[in-house]
Amino acid sequence: MYLDELIEFNQEFSKEKKYIQYQTDKFPDKRIVIFSCMDTRLVELLPNALNIKNGDAKIVKNAGAIIKNPFGSIMRSLLVAVYALKADEILVIGHHDCGMKGFSGKQLIEKAMQRGVQKETINTLEYAGIDVEQWLEGFESVEDSVEHSVGVIRNHPLLPKDTPVHGLVIDPNTGKLDIVTKGYEKIN
Q1: Residue 67 lies in a domain
Q2: Quick one: pLDDT at residue 133?
């Protein structure tokens, strides 16, 4: 329903050359990559709370800023940012009042089945070795979750050992950041 509205706006945006103010290259000026949650409250708040402008940083997002698979697309994106796009530091930023806190994989599976996903599909995934419920599960403590994601990144065999990986939590109402772990203290 929204696509037509978005495309109509985009046509005017492009025609009026409003894109010019956002032009930059692919390398982050501040040489950082941020891994954060996809929460809508952070779209503008997070960059502004960090004084990040267009072109300053690479930003990778997913639900809860959780890394479940050290060889999945999140980690691949972080490694590409470091090796190919000149990022020197990684910031993992979770947030208070996250929808993934206490999130139940079991309940999501039930909702998926209500919307037409067959039990056989879930069974096939389980048979293939995927614990679907665990894969969809959230966390109980945002600080612990951030520390876990930092640990997955920091200990990845392909990440240079001198890459600082920081963990932070942002308040989605005020933008205030709290440090969970400073990466400078952990590099070899």
Answers
A1: yes
A2: 94
* Nearest-angstrom CA–CA distance, 136 and 61: 16
The 3-state secondary structure of 126-146 reads HHCCCCHHHHHCCECCHHHHH
Which neighbouring-strand residues pair with 89?
32
- Residue 123: pLDDT band (50, 70, 90) is very high
**19 and 88 part of one domain:** yes
Alpha carbons 57 and 33: distance in angstroms, whole number: 6
Query: Is this model's pTM higher than 0.90 or not?
Result: yes
Domain of residue 39, residue span: 14-98+141-185
The percent of the chain in helix, strand and coil, each rounded to the nearest 5, is 45, 15, 40
Spell out the residues 6+ positions from residue 1 whose beta carbon is closer than 8 angstroms to its own: none
Contacts of 25 by beta carbon, 8 Å cutoff, 6+ apart: 55
CB 20 within 8 A of CB 54: no
| 4 inside domain | no
Sheet with 32-37: list strands edge to edge. Answer: 57-62, 32-37, 89-95, 165-170, 177-181
